[in-house]
Write a structure and sequence with these properties.
CATH topology of one domain in chain B: Helix Hairpins
Radius of gyration of chain A: 24 Å
Radius of gyration of chain B: 29 Å
CATH architecture of one domain in chain B: Orthogonal Bundle
Largest sheet of chain B: 5 strands, mixed
Number of helices of chain B: 12
Number of strands of chain B: 14
Order of helices and strands of chain A: HHHHHHHHHHHHHHHHHHH
Mean pLDDT of chain B: 86
Oligomer: heterodimer
Helix content of chain A: 55-70%
CATH class of one domain in chain B: Mainly Alpha
Number of domains of chain A: 1
Largest sheet of chain A: none
Distance between the termini of chain A: 29 Å
Strand order of the largest sheet of chain B: 3-2-1-5-8
Structural class of chain A: mainly alpha
Mean pLDDT of chain A: 94
Chain lengths: ~600, ~450
Amino acid sequence: MTEVAQSGSLYRGGIASWLTTVDHKRIGILYGVTALLLAIVGGTEAILIRTQLIVPNNSFLHADTFNAMFTMHGVTMIFMFVMPVNAAFFNYIVPLQIGARDVAFPRLNALSYWVFLFGALLFHAGFLTGELPKVGWFGYANLSTMYSDHGADFWMVGLQVLGLSSLIASINFIATIVNLRAPGMSMLRMPLFTWTTLITNILLLLALPVITIALVQVLFDRFFHTGIYDPASGGSVILWQHLFWIFGHPEVYILILPPMGMVSEILPTFSRKPLFGYAAMVYASAAIAFLGFTVWAHHMFTVGMGPMANAVFSAATMLIAIPTGVKIFNWISTVWGGRLRMTTAMWFAAGFVAMFTIGGLSGIMHASPPIDAQQQDSYFVVAHFHYVLIGGSVFGILGGIYYWFPKITGRLLNETLGKLQFWLVLIGFNLTFFPQHFLGVDGMPRRIYTYAEGGGLELWNFWSTIGAYITAVSAVVFFFNLIVSLRSGKVAGADPWDARTLEWAITSPPPEYNFAKLPQVEARDEFWHRKYDLKNFQPEPRGHVLLPNPTKWPLVVGVGIALMGSGFLFTPYLTPLGVIVVLIGTYAWSFSKFEG
Amino acid sequence: MTVSNYLANSCRRAWVALPLAGFLVSGCFGDGRQSTIRPASDVGHAVQAVYSVVTWIDIGIFIVVFGLLIVALIRFRGGKEGEMPKQVHGNPVMEILWTLVPAVLLIFIAVPTWSTIFLTANPPKENAVHVLAIGKQWWWEFEYVDSGVVTGNELHVPVNRPIVITTRSTDVIHSFWVPRLSGKIDSLPGKDNVLWFTPQEKGVFYGQCAEYCGTSHANMRFRVIVEDEADYEKWLASVTQPPVPQTAEAKEGEQLFLAKACVACHTITGVPGAVGKVGPNLTNLGARSSIASATIENTPQNLAAWIHDSRSIKPGVLMILPLPVSVEEAGKLAAYLTSPTGPAPGAPAPQGGATLNMKQPPAGAAAAAGGGLDGKTLFLTKGCTGCHTVQSLPLARGTIGPALDGLQARPRIAAGVLPNTEANLKRWIKDPPSVKPGTLMVKLGLSDAEVETIVAFLKTL
């Protein structure tokens, strides 16, 4: 096939079709595009932060503006970039990988996207009123509950609504993976990306309710003066930290596991070898997720929990290093002995292994409370989490984008621009964050809008900022590549990479119904098995298949939820209005007829 | 110590203690005054030992992982088109090895970690100096538990004696961190935390709040001065006596200190009426090397600039002057505050119920013959505006106490302690600590007539 398949065209139907879609592929695209645009917002905030810190005693940003910038940057990058980009891939790729036609609950799927979009808008609505949250992304009480202005409400409501979006989606993906796998695809024949999607969504399902309750308590403290987090009323500020981090630690595995899954698809494809130690990878991922619920208080080693609590959480944290190490060695062994094609996706996957290792090593240092007493709340921690988040999650995601872009759009991203972007971001990112380890060692606390002259902090702050500017250039190259390749990238065909899993067995982009005939699965890496073991692979015939119809009710319910949240931001009358809209929307949704 | 000497020592120290090249480089630029790898205490050295072990292990793992990855990327690149590499699925021996070896390495980290946790958690009881470090937005108050001495932002301690710091906060969470002496511990509202260290070197050690606490978190710094026992005792004594003005300028400053109602927020031990608890204790300010929570050096120009307009130096600072202070007046105040302390020459014995001594007519006051100032003027000139906001008075923008608009309509006052009657309001303003012990609102030494006039004004709000 030399033309881009038309039946899955991105452009069919106009705006209305996008607003009412229940097709997992379109919802995946909506998630992805929205997330990339918000990444630009978060990245701009980062550039502003680093510009303020380029020299000591700088006056580029006022203290309050700086404090708002690091708050917004953290929340945006976590909840409005990495999580929704992961969701974009859950949406688009997982049904294709398991040989399904769509997710288990297509309308719920659409709802989760609209709630995400409205959550992002509500969070940023403070820009309209000039009141931005300045509480840090994890908003410690009682600064957030008793010593913050109205800006903190945008943080509270935004986080609440965004969390709801992921919770809704998690139910969907677990049901999909458990129930809709093609015949013959046992759990241990699933691609690793599907596995990490399943595990991540179980984590979301268990962790999000905790922060939901914790934020409701913040709402009650701020609006009804309940004093749950106020020691003077018999409450506790530490309670917030425990509740937050019981969510917050699994959250970081939610951020890293899907990119780990992407890397686990990319490395085998471009090494022309199966993933080394598939079962161990599955069990290690599950172990990391499970253990992730036992370590939350390592974010609280300096809070004064006492030596015994510190020792226990330290031991649990060190334990997680073991399955993580297993994964690193398995990835390297996948590459070892292969026949490597160094495409951009492969570079990012290899870069992931290297950079995530560095992040993991600084994490081991933090796991020791005496060392952490020096490192906590310093730039050493900032360096650590950016290594695992950018060097880890973002590199994995960029690899995933270069890998699956041809499947989604039918065109390849430009490889020259891709490699330019890779080297720019590798250099820029390392220049930005490696010196921040030194700044932490030199005693620079985090979240400070300026620092003193003569304390030895000038040199590395300067170079860190230069690194940030280089990273920004790499982002420009990336977006340029995306736009140019969409219009005139090389046509990809169904299987441009000679890959291993089922999504490559159908056209690029896939037809609306994905598979005309549901595949009968006989092995792990089923597609590779058909191509090279069976050697009798037949291309998919076209056909007509019955699919759920588009509907506006998920959008309506999403608007209702947004209105409910808005009541705490603008005027209280919006909340009861929102409740009415949700009730009407849910009723109509439940009783709408199925028209194929 | 000469500069080159210093550099040589610190470079060598960094190389021995922590082998990472980058740490070496960073230790050679700047004075490393807040460095976490230049310990000057027993606890600091104990932590350094664990830090070194983990750093070596980390470096070893880094070399192995990176080495394998880079070799793999180079060695297996390309190859003949169509060539299919061996489809290896696993290797049980390797997999067991790389599960067990990391586990063993972790034990090497866990054991010294465990013992150091318990070491740092057990402050010695013998011969210790006990200090209460109270974090407030955005400065540190230090109280010496045994002697009752209170000071702000600079902590003097004797060398070679255990220093036990109990820390808490009166508002949000802060964190007490002086890297060269110890790891940090959070200062919480509602619960005390303890950290300890025995300083082993004399000198000035730089600290900083390490938990984001609002607008001027970056400016919430402090210093720990470690000195000989004798010098420490001398300093402790000097902080219990008022400044003794040595020059005419300083004498004028003494009057201004009272006239400008600084006493509403600040205490100076031995100055009658200066019992404010909102801002730092200013006794022997002259001995401090820094001011403005250790962000700027204590020079006459800096101090005058700070007093004149603190918000331009420290964003969001709660120090709002009740009465405007010109730059010239600020200079005089600075001269007074930095005068050496000593027993006040011929000072009258302080009476119970300290009185304000207003020798200078306050700026902007309506000077009525016979001393009958109206309520609004009294409100503006007695220091009320340092803590309270009244929308109709542009100078009244204090944010420490409750806003007073609508006071007339409130059923209760003093945060619900008293019903809002004229008699109660007078009682409250006349002597707040007698109504609500521990309140930050000081007894200003107002006469009954003045209280009555102010109450009449407040009833119009």
